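Box S2. Input/output pair 1.
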Amino acid sequence: MNNTEKIIWEIEQFHRNIEKWFQGKAENQESLYQELLSGFSQDFKMINGNGDTVTLSMLGEWLPTVFGKFPERNIEVENIEVNHSGDHGLATYIETQVTGEIITKRKSSAIFLIDKEKALWLNLIENWI
């Protein structure tokens, strides 16, 4: 896999898994939890759509509180654009979450650390659209 493919795969895989998590559709909840967090650098930080900063440990603590909380939520990722150097990548994309009749959209920018095996989320900024 080249670096662009690693980044796109990580974005798409994370969103498939977080959708399963929200829906509570995990055959093994602990395994899915570990898979969700394995894609992040230990130094990960996010600024969410509300302007709040979230660290990896905060994300890890939040995940169990939302397992199965949104059984009807569907998540779509589109318009992924990637630029990268040898060790880092920048991706932008649009994420749409549909829960019943409620639709939320955000434009996200993410920085990834790239190694031989995969791309790890380092920073993420979400803006409501």
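Box S3. Input/output pair 2.
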Amino acid sequence: MSPDAGQAAASPDAAPTAAGQQRVRVTAPRTAPASADPYTVSRELDEQTEVGELFIGSLIRSQLRLALVVTGGFLLILLGVPVLLAFLPVIATLTLFTVPAPWILLGVGVYPLVIICGALYVRSADRNEQRFLDLVDDA
């Protein structure tokens, strides 16, 4: 067996070229990890790190702020009806089918207000949660 044949058998990466010489691939060991685990917000949430707690706390604060704003607006409008009646006593004397106008305002007018405030709250809360999910999915 010739020395060239022994080298070809010993080196599996060796490939003969057209001139009869052999090409050998030389590799070195890796000095750095192949792929570092990328930073993700979802990983921070899963591992319950301080960063994950910060993101969750931010979502909770935004939802609480929204609830306080909607509740404050609702109470402001609801308490505005008696103030309006106090400053405009003419409204208190009006009747509609023998029902006093203040009763109509408080009895019938409050329900659309509750529905509107609830719809605005749900829409804004969904938007807050969607922003949070976009933040978690993007990173």
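Caption for Box S3: The chain is about 65% helix and 5% strand. The longest strand covers residues 15-16.
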